[in-house]
Amino acid sequence: MNRIPPLATLLAALFTCCAVSAQTQLAQYRPGVTTDGAVYFLPKTGINVEVMVEKTTYQPGDFCRYAQRYLRQNDVSQEPSVSYRIIAIEQTPFALPDTLKGYAVKFNAKTVAANVALADDGRLLAINAEPIKAQTTKLSFTPARRPAPINPRQLMSEEILAAGSTTKMAELTAHEIYDLRENRNLLIKGQADFMPQDGNQMRLMLHQLEEQERALSSMFVGTTTRDTTLHVVTVVPDGPLQRQLLFRLSQVNGLVDIDDLSGTPYYISIEDMKTVPEIDVEAAMKAKKKQYEAGIYVNVPGRMRSTLFEGINALQTAELPAPQFGNVELLSAELFNKHYTTHLWLNPITGAVDRLEAEQPK
Fold first, then answer.
1. Band of the pLDDT at 231, cuts 50, 70, 90?
2. By CB distance 3.0 to 4.6 Å, which of 16, 111, 251, 358 could disulfide with 336?
3. What three-state secondary structure class fits 356?
4. Could you give the CA distance from residue 5 to residue 43 in angstroms, rounded to a whole number?
5. Are 37 and 29 in contact (CB under 8 A)?
6. Residue 145: which residues within 8 A CB-CB, separation 6 or more?
7. Helix crossing, 166-189 with 199-221: angle to 10°?
8. pTM for the complete prediction?
9. Strand locations in 107-154, DSSP E?
10. Which DSSP helix (H) or strand (E) runs through 113?
11. Per-residue confidence band for 10, with pLDDT thresholds at 50, 70 and 90
12. Among 172, 151, 150, 177, which residue's Cα sits nearest to residue 161?
């Protein structure tokens, strides 16, 4: 088996090196593969903006008015509250078919480009090869199971529950909390009446004392719970964007409608980094006459700079591949003649040539 030269040499020698217009007349046809040929799309890049939002809920305890008197806890709120904040944000590129880049390839006896692999949405992935799996970075998010809270009233003694007033109940509960703290300190110092036999038993006893203290203290300082949710906002830029409104976040109500002014606005800007030379108009006109020349069209993707803003402040910038800011080129049908078995892999996100190999039949 003889390998052909490296990819860069192949492209230089065998590409029909003229940029073609992204406009085609195949957008109305459904992509697919038959025994006669294939209709396929090249991709463009969208952006999933993944926003992880934390909701904090505070519920005051029954004895919150006595927190300063008995536990010396200042600034304990007596009103319930809910607040939201963003704890992580990530921009992840994904591919979707560009219906303005639809092409047809017809199989004939002189070619061996018969094994065409398409994605479910019609994007060309590979020829005579297994497609490459797209690798993307996403926020890792697995909802955790919240342990069942301890009911503090189940830890109250008969004397506390029988108290004739809330003030007396609060006083007796505070004494119980101080007793738990003293028992824990004696256990740590090794002065408790009943010392554990080993380290595991010691950890278990300390854990139980801490849980009981936390539950009873919640009657004074209240309880705070946190829930995290992942939201995905999708943007598909067909050109540069200047501070396009993405979403709004209210500290009180979480994600709200875009027209709800109670939420802080978050914007996105898209900049063409111009990493691919602009199309020569004269060459494009000539290429337009050769739209259906035999071969495989592939993307030469550009790059875009995506910037997220919180209000007027830049929050995050990412540089991502962007076929919509690049060109399209023709991979000559000569690569798929019977003298070679050519294997072509396209990048599943950009539609660019990722790998090209050929072997001579034995």
1. very high
2. 111
3. strand
4. 27
5. no
6. none
7. 160
8. 0.77
9. 116-118, 124-127
10. none
11. very low
12. 172
**Alpha-carbon span 165 to 87, nearest angstrom:** 43
Q: What is the DSSP letter of 236?
A: -
Q: Are strands 341-346 and 313-332 parallel, antiparallel or unpaired?
A: unpaired
- Non-local (6+) Cβ contacts of 265 within 8 A are 245, 248, 311
Between 299 and 338, whose confidence is greater?
A: 299
Asked if 351 and 124 count as a contact pair (C-beta separation under 8 A), the reply is yes
Longest dimension (CA), the chain: 99
Q: What is the pLDDT of residues 105-155, one digit of tens each?
A: 877 655 555 688 899 999 999 988 888 887 766 666 677 777 788 899 999
| SS3 state at 281 | helix
Alpha-carbon span 136 to 323, nearest angstrom: 17
Render pLDDT for 154-195 as a digit per residue (tens, 0 to 9). 999 899 999 989 999 999 999 999 999 998 898 888 887 778
The pair of three-digit structure tokens given for residue 356, joined into one six-digit string: 């090209």
Residues 6 or more apart in contact with residue 170 via CB below 8 angstroms: 63, 66, 69, 70, 219, 220
pLDDT of residue 222 exceeding 60: yes
What is the C-alpha R_g of the chain?
33
Compute CA 299 distance to the chain's CA centroid, rounded to the nearest angstrom. Answer: 25
Burial 265-275 (b: 16+ CB within 10 A, else e): bbbbbbbbeee
